[in-house]
Design brief:
Keywords: Ion transport, Membrane, Transmembrane, Transmembrane helix, Transport. There is one protein chain. The protein has eight helices and three strands, in the order H-H-H-H-H-H-H-E-E-H-E. The longest helix has about 35 residues. By secondary structure, it is mainly α. It has a three-stranded mixed β-sheet. The protein folds into two domains: about 200 residues, Alpha-lytic protease prodomain-like, CATH 1.20.1510; about 70 residues, Cation efflux protein, cytoplasmic domain (Alpha-Beta Plaits), CATH 3.30.70.
């Protein structure tokens, strides 16, 4: 019951944070369009990542709290977060490219953007980001989903600082290039993060082995377990961020298969593959089997 209350409270704080960020996202879009400020629109695109990230975290927490595993979904809803991340990445790449192309086009003849609205909105955005960070700080220590949302908000706070600088330069010195220059910088900040997010999501969806796991080394160590004569059907993949999975078949002539299983699990644990299925079979079982399947 305590865990349920903790999860409910964490979801509640995340929901409040989401409401704050959505409200400020709308404000940035409205002011950005009305003032023709690409810096504000670029920061709004960055804030959109916060909103999507928080929504993903909120959905993940709710599914974990209520239980999302069914007979037809033995892995629960873990991949839903990955699918959302890939869609989010595609959207962000589109936004970033649009902002960069528009900003570069404006560098030759930048329009007059009023500096005061940029300063006011940037200060409000910075205050909103700091407030949300304080709200999520304690939960970020104990939840990977919330930690991701917290880091997104921290990055967006830096974007608000950029808009603030552009507004001050425009208001104090009338430098019309401040807005497109800051828009370019914000676009360049969002683009690699979006690409990395999409690459990580696609890597999980195609069930590639996690980059941190040396699969040949895992195979070699399993083959070195006393009594093991063959290692086959070794598969290592990522189910979702932070959950790596492995399956393997081991052939042995050893009669103590429990010992072989124990030693094999220790090998996998050394590679942080605790969520693993190991099948230990007698060597005779491999007779007539193909190279990769039996």
């Amino acid at each position: 019951m305590a865990d349920a209350r903790t999860g409910s409270g964490r979801s509640g704080r995340l929901l409040v944070s989401l409401g704050v960020m959505v409200g400020f996202l709308v404000l940035e879009v409205v002011v950005g369009l009305s003032t023709s400020s690409l810096a504000l629109l670029s920061d709004a695109g960055h804030m959109l990542t916060d909103v999507v990230g928080m929504t993903m975290a909120l959905v993940a927490l709710e599914l974990v709290r209520r239980g999302g595993q069914r007979a037809a979904r033995t892995y629960g809803w873990h991949r839903a977060e990955v699918l959302t991340a890939v869609l989010n990445a595609a959207l962000l790449v589109g936004v970033a490219v649009f902002i960069l192309v528009s900003a570069v086009g404006r560098l030759s003849d930048p329009p007059a953007v009023p500096g005061l609205p940029l300063v006011v909105v940037a200060l409000a955005g910075l205050a909103a980001n700091v407030g949300v960070m304080l709200l999520l700080r304690s939960d970020a220590r104990n939840s990977l989903a919330v930690r991701g949302a917290y880091l997104e908000v921290f990055a967006d706070a830096l974007g608000s600082v950029g808009v603030l600088v552009a507004g001050l330069l425009t208001a104090l010195f009338g430098w019309r290039y401040a807005d497109p220059v800051v828009a370019v910088l914000l676009g360049l900040m969002v683009l690699p993060r979006a690409v990395n997010l999409g690459r990580a999501g696609v890597r999980i969806l195609v069930e590639a082995a996690p980059s941190r796991v040396d699969v040949p080394a895992v195979r070699a160590e399993l083959a070195g377990v006393a009594g093991v004569t063959d290692v086959h059907d070794l598969h290592v993949w990522t189910l979702t961020d932070g959950m790596d999975v492995a399956t393997v078949h081991l052939s042995t002539t050893d009669t103590d298969r429990d010992r072989v299983l124990h030693d094999a699990r220790e090998v996998l644990a050394r590679h942080d593959l605790g969520h693993a299925t190991v099948q230990v079979e007698h060597t005779s079982h491999r007779a007539g089997c193909g190279e990769d399947a039996c």
